[in-house]
Amino acid sequence: MSEAIDRRRLVRRHNPVLTSAHPAGVLTVGNGDIALTVDISGLQTFPSFHELVPDPRRVAHDGLSGLPEQRPRVFDADDFQIPLRTQSTWGWYEIRTDRELRLEDTTTLYETSRGTVPYLDRMGLQRAGDPIAEEFVAGAWYHFNPRRAHLGRLALVRPDGTGLDDPAALTNVRTELDLWTATIHAAYVLDGERVHVTTVADPHDHRFAVRIESGLLPRGWGVAWVFDDQPDDLAAFELPLAQETVWDEWTERHWQARRTVEALTYGVGVRTTGSLREGADSVVAHTGATVLEVVVTLTPDQDRPPHQDDFSAVSASARTWWAEHWSTGAAISLAGSTDTRAAELERRVVLSQYLMAVNSAGVTPPAESGLTYNTWSGKFHLEMHWWHAAHFPMWGRGHLLERSMRWYHGALEAAKATARRQGYLGARWPKQTDPSARESPSHIGVFLLWQQPHVIYLLELLRGEGREESFLREHYPLVEATADFMADFAEERDGAFRLPPPLIPAQESYLLDRATNADPTFELAYWSWALGVANEWRTRLGLEPNEQWDRVARNMRRPALLPDGTYAAIATSPWLIRKDHPSMLMALGWLPDTDLVDPATMSATLDAVWQHWDLQSSWGWDYPVMAMTAARLGDVGRAIDALLLPSPKNVFLPNGHNPQMPGFLTIYLPANGGLLAAMAHLATAVNQGAELPGGWILTSEGLGALPRPSVLSGSSWTRKENGRPAAG
Length: 728
Known about the structure:
Layout: H1 7-12, E1 17-18, E2 27-30, E3 34-38, H2 47-50, E4 86-88, E5 92-93, E6 108-112, E7 115-119, H3 137-144, E8 147-148, E9 153-157, E10 171-178, E11 183-190, E12 193-201, E13 207-214, E14 222-226, E15 243-251, E16 254-261, E17 264-272, E18 275-279, E19 282-286, E20 291-299, H4 311-327, E21 331-333, H5 342-359, E22 380-381, H6 385-389, H7 391-394, H8 398-405, H9 407-421, E23 432-433, H10 454-463, H11 469-489, E24 491-493, E25 496-498, H12 521-540, H13 547-554, H14 599-612, H15 622-632, H16 636-643, H17 669-687, E26 699-701
Antiparallel strand pairs: 1-10, 2-3, 3-4, 5-8, 6-7, 9-14, 10-11, 11-12, 12-13, 13-20, 14-19, 15-16, 16-17, 17-20, 18-19, 21-26, 22-23, 24-25
Helix pairs in contact: 5-17, 8-10, 9-11, 10-11, 11-12, 11-13, 12-13, 15-16, 15-17, 16-17
């Protein structure tokens, strides 16, 4: 038996350290429902230095400004900025307009074999800065509203309350995130004085605590909570924001604010060991001593009574929670490996665990940039929920996924209404949405299918951790409504079931063919597997299998093949575009075995992707896709190579973030979550006897079970051979 992993040593050897200012050099503390991102000061002192600078050479993806560029240029770290924000799962606002807008005005009718079906796709394809065509105004407003709010900022300020502009004012800097306790320690010299700042987040509440030690304090310097204007992501037709702050001085050391941004109202409590004074849209904590502590509590209930927690209590709570987090669940160590890449892979794995717990473990599905800053207005994309959270149960931490699964219950009626409006049974889950579950108009998102079975996949992962029958009964309504839609959406033809147009597969390159796209390889396999699992849930609950679910699951059309014998992406022209996501690989590896997919054919498909794909156009989670397929096929060496494949989209910054696009998507948490899922697949393959390449040693412990094949899978199935080679 191998020795237990020294988890504290494993984690702490990858503590990120900043020794100079960089626009992407930030660190974040949080608890999954709220997060605060700081610069080298240990606070949010230099916001303009980190503010996003839109790149005029690119076109934003899936928004007012249209399609992604066809071939990205090569990026380096200096192309990226990560802004300083404080965000939560509950802080959202909608901008006012000077006209009446209706969601139904964003509808286009599509002719299908079952009749006319409405889709909310009237978004337009304008480039950034262009005026919005009148017929697309409603689509634009609903796409970008509501928005996740920036709640405020903690900053070091001068005696007159003004902020600092240039991070070069700080010298001899060493700012470190202690991952084991989730505590940031910053030390530097400012204005001739040593400064030590400690910053930590409450793991249980929406609260941050800061301790500053410096000779600057008796000279009048302080720490301010500042209400910034909301970041400028407003569409051109919208009205200026209505914002207001009202302070209530409870005591000299504790003030409470009511902050209003449009219809959003929230409370902010500031408690200090010093005294408080009002600044310009801020409150400043100051003291005549050399030590100052500040605790900031944010809440959607502005009338909440004042809290009593001080810095020591918040810090102790964080130490306890994070030590337990790292000590339980899974760990993977690459110590002892002689391959020079091993330390980098292990670093990415450790930092990804931290970032996902901070950004993606809240009560709603997370946004692609989590709680760090807004992309797509801070809305979350349900097809990405798997990437953010499936790794939690794979790593034995399913309770962090379970927090967000309850959101689906509140969203169920909205999803059912979408299905009814389109003439389907069950619930059709949106792609891009917000806590209200309202679908965002989009020329891409409304046609995606692969988020539909995610609810079943994620719940099955949790069930595999050993949940009680009460868990199945609580969540079965989600499984049933999801499976009802899936079975009804599938269209029978010649005894086999297909996925008919309009649709866009996970590989979104087929946008322009949405009215004719059919039978994407990955989604066919996903439909079959998930419907089989849904019936297993019925059996576990003492219910008879649903005959229609079973019939569709057993008779899904086989994926189409290209002339070279590899899998096509879709079964209609253009069959395969060799860029963006190689989503057909997800039919084996990302998914368990199904009777629809032949391992030898998938192996050849992986070879073809490796040799011929435009991997420079891929995304951060595509490398984990390749790795999971390779691991399932027993090729652990190729799985490792995929995770470390040189590409502009596969770079991990010193803080663990994976940037994708300058000026917009400067962090990409699905890549971090995908890496963790792929490592679970890789370690499982090694534990089952797959051979590691020379120079590699992998030790793992505490891994959860990966999803199993459905009981419907197996060679006993009888199917019609309805796949056919594509003609190009």
